[in-house]
């Protein structure tokens, strides 16, 4: 640690940098802090030179406190920090891609350098390869509509779920379908993290205007893992995201967003952004039941060209409940072992290989009574009527909707739901559910209605 003597401005800054490396993310550190120079230090004031206006604003708004605190720790006295722009010559070639950014941007056609970074959509993530089941029916139906008429009906389209339940698959499936139907549209798929990292490197290179232009001239913007927006850089990245989002949204360009939680739970500082995100269709993906897990594995085994007996598929599907990525990983592990060792895959072998995988299913805690009360008030139909034997059209519809929502949001069995909603048998419950599921596919009003009703429980 430094003594009470006044350090030279360079000594102070060089000693503060390693402390700062622990405080800010690696991209900011590389892009801005290593390039900043200490211009003057007088004992209670440090003047820092940064390469451009954007960097200055960025550092002041997002990291001013951290920089000040680290500098004070080194100097062991209070210090006022000032930043000013000291232009540096532009680099001869565009900077290399930001470190650690996942390769997740794709565009429908190549762009000049310094703009969007192309990287293809995964061809496996198509609608054809997506197994439709109760856990994803709503999201799938909405995704199909988005793909059919981008920018027209469901904008923005927001998909959320826990990890490994198919968000990226569905978002990219929309991308494939749009490109197949509308090859003239400019489409970009990007993870929020890659978006922010790219933005920071453009700020560093003084190409932020081009960055903005290229994003804002898109027709379809697919954004994955938006929860990172809040985590990476605070308000500045949110703001940049918000402006891109608003520009596209206001000109009826399609925006699709995937997230690990519903919009209202996103740790965003920008309330306008959050409410904008809530304004479109919000769909969730839930943990698939055992039959669906078997179906997914079956499809996967087929694509991989490995025929597996139903017994083995059921064993694997029973073992891993709550994450399809892990489920598929287990299957691949078994296949890889068998092919490496040139042995036949048997149930015993499968047990040996994935015997220690543990399973856990997240519990939903929404009560049927809450659903009934909410739907009664939203559809203006007394709760007593919904659970009665009355069959007038309005009441029957409210009941069907309530049953649909109950099945979507709770783990209750068909029989349990039937019993609650007026002692109905499981086939009536299934009929009601299917009727609403069908209406969602064909009637936009119903899709919006269910979207809003479900949204209340998030
Ligand atoms: P997330 O983005 O929600 O973390 P992914 O989209 O990466 O999840 O899905 C994880 C894996 O599970 C992928 O290989 C994906 O193809 C597969 N998967 C998820 N849902 C389905 C489904 N309904 N049908 C087929 N495969 C699925
Ligand atoms: Mg994903």
Please provide a written account of the structure.
This protein has 458 residues and is of the alpha/beta class. The protein folds into four domains: 9-85, DnaA, N-terminal domain (GMP Synthetase, Chain A, domain 3); 137-284, 3-Layer(aba) Sandwich (Rossmann fold); 290-353, Helicase, Ruva Protein, domain 3; 368-455, Orthogonal Bundle (Chromosomal Replication Initiator Protein Dnaa, Chain: A). The chain has 20 helices and nine strands. A six-stranded mixed β-sheet has the order 4-6-7-8-5-9, with helices on both faces. Helix 3 (53-75) links the parallel strand 2 and strand 3 (80-85). Helix 2 (26-33) packs parallel to helix 6 (192-204). Mean pLDDT is 85; it is low at 90-114. Bound molecules: adenosine-5'-diphosphate and magnesium ion. Residues 125, 129-131, 136, 161, 163-169, 296, 324-325, 328 line the site of adenosine-5'-diphosphate.
Give structural attributes.
alpha/beta, GMP Synthetase, Chain A, domain 3, Helicase, Ruva Protein, domain 3, 4 domains, 3-stranded mixed sheet, 20 helices, binds magnesium ion
